[in-house]
Amino acid sequence: MKRFFALALILTFFALPAHAEGADIRANLPEDIRVFFSRAQYNGCVLGPDAYVEITGTEAGDFAFAALTEGSSQTLYGFTRRDGGGWTYWLKTASALPQRAGEMHLNSAYGTLFGTLYCDHPALEISFQSEEIEEYWNWTEVYELSGAGGQWMLVYLKNQLTAYCFARVYADRIVYQNDNGDTLSTVYGTVQRNLRYHSFAAFPMTPAAAREKLTQAPVLPQNSELTAQNIRFTGGQAFPVYSGPGEYYLRAADGAAKVSTNDWIQVFGTENGYALIQYAISAGHMRFGYIDQSSLPADARVPALGFSASAASLETDAALTDDPLGNGAPLRVLPAGSTVTHLAVMGDWAYVEVDGGGAPVRGFVPKSALAKVVTGSFQNGEYSAFASARIGANCTVTVAVSAPDAWQNAVTGYTLYANNTPLATASGPYAQGYSFTVALPEDVSVLGLCPLRNGLPAAQETITLPIP
User: Fold this and answer.
1) CA distance 331 to 333
2) Beta-strand pair 24-25/46-47
3) Which residues contact 249 (CB under 8 A, 6 or more apart)?
4) What is the mean pLDDT of residues 137-145?
């Protein structure tokens, strides 16, 4: 009898169903995705009956999305398939979803009218009903497929969980609406729209919040020697930023300056293995700086900078800034007389490099504060002459001449030309040198200094000083 009872217990044990590993799957899934969520790491998760959708036949292939709930946590998973093969995992994000207990619902929005939104590309609609709020689908986001690369970009957001918000989201603006689709306010700027990197918590739910946060790449001044292209980086990355092309240059923000790829980035060119960029820190605050060239997207085509460096000095005190098109916050204050290396002009700003005071630093000073220094020379046998021009509010030109004593009566002066027009003449013994202080006419591109021999011009010995 005991033996029979023991045998019955054993049979009963084996007859009991084994505890299933993985998520509690209530949706109809393909076998390979079902296997994916049947792993032990998904124990305690629920995949609801409407929390799975397939969007197939797009130019980027087939897509499947599934939302797992674990208590008050929500996580979205994405899968891809090409040419009728199996499903491949490619996406996991929780930041795009509200993190509270409730029911997830996924749907294909392609070709459907959603409020005032008509999706003429494949689109993913993600909706959520909180356990705390009885209204049906009190949160919705719609992502539209962009291009053959398979990027899903946010185009619509409805939120009645943390704030009252209906918003159409574009590449360069957010249009806030009422629940009838009427426009209430438009705020220009960029926000992270890529599903992989979008943050529901960080999205500005009101126009006031958007005006505080959103920025837009500025239009560069027309008379700029710096030209930029807007390059799209993969989101979710951050790179250290230096004021010049090397780690030995000053790094702003007390050595912590970095750029996030979740916003716009303008790229100007490369130098010494680094790329000059401009990016936004906050509304009204931007920064020029350099990132390692290897940080650029693989398909980016960025030219070399090719600056024509020249010596210059400051006529007045000037603040050096890395934000000339924003609030102009200073990196360093340079006293009048400071020597700098002039690199380029951008509108009313001069782009310069400064040594000393610790690490070298590049930045912008007002062009009006800068006196550029250009030089030239002439040499013929025993006779030589060196000229320099300090070009600021007034132009100061000096000429030093070296010649044998036997020539002391031959060189009697120099005439200064602006382009091809005589501007001033200085006379006297060559040993004392010659100097001019003049106001230059507009559009002068070159200065010429022609020596006078016995009162007659010696054009073949003219020194030219090109003005950058």
Assistant:
1) 7
2) parallel
3) 242, 243, 290, 359, 360, 361, 362
4) 88
Report which secondary-structure segment, H or E, holds 254: helix 252-255
Residue 248: exposed, middle, or buried by beta-carbon count in 10 A (0-12, 13-18, 19+)? Answer: exposed
Q: Per residue in 383-407, pLDDT tens?
A: 788 888 888 767 788 878 777 776 6
Share of the chain above pLDDT 90, in %: 43
Q: Looking at the whole model, is its pTM more than 0.85? A: no
Amino acid at 272: N
Long-range contacts of 442-447 (CB under 8 A, 24+ apart): 444/418, 444/419, 445/419, 446/419, 447/374, 447/389, 447/395, 447/397, 447/416, 447/417, 447/418
pLDDT at 310: 83
Q: Are 67 and 126 in contact (CB under 8 A)?
A: yes
Q: How far apart are CA 342 and CA 361, in angstroms?
A: 12
d(Cα 27, Cα 103) in Å, to the nearest integer? 13
Sign of CA dihedral 284, 290, 291, 296: positive
Cβ–Cβ < 8 Å for 315, 367:
no
DSSP label of 242:
B
Distance of alpha carbon 416 from alpha carbon 467, whole angstroms:
14
Identify the residue with better confidence: 199 or 137. Answer: 199
CA angle 160–69–81, rounded 5-degree value: 105
CA angle 209, 213, 215 (to 5 degrees): 135
Q: What is the overall mean pLDDT for the chain?
A: 86
For residue 42, pLDDT beyond 90:
yes
What is the reported pLDDT for 354?
96
Complete domains list, the chain, with CATH: 20-213 (no CATH), 229-295 (2.30.30), 310-369 (2.30.30), 381-466 (2.60.40)
- pLDDT tens digits for range 58-98: 888 899 999 999 999 999 999 999 877 899 999 999 999 99
Q: Return the pLDDT at 363.
A: 97
What whole-number distance in Å separates Cα of residue 415 and Cα of residue 448?
8
